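I had to read the description of the data format several times before I understood it. In essence, backbone conformation is discretised, so a fold becomes a row of integers matching the chain in length. I therefore recommend that a typical entry be quoted early in the introduction. For illustration, here is how one protein appears when written out as sequence plus structure tokens.

***
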Amino acid sequence: MGEKCIDKLLAEQMIEKATEALAYAYAPYSGFKVGASLLTSAGEIYTGCNIENAAYSPGNCAERTAVFKAVSEGQKEFKAICIVNEGPDHGHDYCAPCGVCRQVMMEFCDPEEFVIILAKGAGDYRCYLLEELQPLGFGPGNLKKS
């Protein structure tokens, strides 16, 4: 929860919003529910949940759901995301974003500043910078001509 994390009250608000999003998760196959809350640079919070599919690969993660909701409403600058989960046993653990979600974050977020909060609950969370979870990541900057 060190220097790289956002304000404690804001982090706890994001954890609460991500936890609320768990109620909408559609996970009939794995029973593994994920909720996310995404903080924009303007201070708005968008939520998302995972949405599974019988064919598996057409499913969508909570993190991407939140990002796509925000982008579809004109938001493209983000400060932080919070991720919570609930396993089939109704337990919670730290749930890091998958590689595809990390790549989507690279598209819209500054890896040196974007905070990823992994939470088990309100007082039990860890913060990481995107660059820590996506070292040597590929993003829009890689496509700019020098």
Notes: DSSP finds four helices and five strands in the chain. The longest strand covers residues 78-86. The chain has a mean pLDDT of 94.
